Amino acid sequence: MKNVLNVLFVFISISVFSQTKSVKKTGVKNTMKTSVKKGNMVTKPNPDLVVLNKDLPLLIPKKKGDKFGYINQNGKFIIQPEYHIAVFFYEDCNLLNSPNEKVRKFGTGDYATVEKDMISYRVDQSGKRVYQFKDADLGKCKFAEYKHQLFQAYILNGFYGIIEKATFVNAADYRQYQIYPQYQYLYIMEGDDVANPMIVASNNDKFGVIDVNNKIIIPFEYANIKRNFSWKLGKMFEVSKDGKNYYYIDANNKTY
């Protein structure tokens, strides 16, 4: 009987010891897994995406030869020029509303649309092509409520000026004009701030940019300034001094 009890005691001791080792081993394994998983979630910022002007995009389309790539705010090519078309990093509402849920993420402002060999892609900030456009993936855009412009161009005696639509009633009263007609041409750029829009103007056969107080933002030294969405999308102007080669400048007339 004594021998039986001794054997039973030894068996119980071995069993408890084995379970203790097993629990400890499992605990360490789970801790290591959790640690690795957290480590993978940490994303290091890209040191090439420098911020010199917080109002500008981190990456700016730039043409070299006959191809487009993207430079950072220091002018360094981050995405090499290989595309026929390259636009600002911005939302694509067709992809955001895609019937294919898996591709909706590529419609966010983290990506830009480019075109090469007649094929359109979305690329990320490293230049990786993450999505190729397919007609079946394109959804219908849900447009936000339109912001009506407060100001509009007004022509008097062949010259352009600016009026505030809500208050203008008498063309004979010069006080009614926001900017009295004096320019060869005026165009109000699309933007988010309708109370202070940027206005492409032409004077003495040269283009520049003014605001609604007739302050010169960009001097009149360009052969042309494109009337596109560059101001709305990137707070920049697409300009040319010869009417052929275009590049971007910011509101301080700095070239990129």
Class from secondary-structure proportions: alpha+beta
- Estimate the helix proportion, in percent: 10-25%
Mean pLDDT: 86
Uncertain ranges: 1-41
Keywords:
single chain; 256 residues; alpha+beta; 3 domains; four-stranded antiparallel beta sheet; 17 strands; 19% helix; 32% strand; globular; disordered N terminus; WG repeat-containing protein; WG_beta_rep
What does it look like?
- By secondary structure, the chain is an alpha+beta fold.
- It folds into three domains: 1-42; 60-137, no CATH class; 151-249, no CATH class.
- It is built from three helices and 17 strands.
- The protein has helices spanning 2-41, 93-96, 230-234, and strands at residues 60-64, 67-71, 77-83, 85-86, 112-116, 119-123, 129-132, 151-156, 159-164, 177-183, 185-188, 199-203, 206-210, 216-222, 224-225, 237-240, 246-249.
- The chain has a four-stranded antiparallel beta sheet with strand order 4-5-6-7, with no helix packed on it. It has a four-stranded antiparallel beta sheet with strand order 11-12-13-14, with no helix packed on it. Strands 1-2-3 form a three-stranded antiparallel beta sheet, with no helix packed on it.
- A hairpin with a 2-residue loop joins strand 1 and strand 2 (67-71).
- The longest helix is centred in the N-terminal third of the chain and has 40 residues, at 2-41.
- Mean pLDDT is 86; it is low at 1-41.
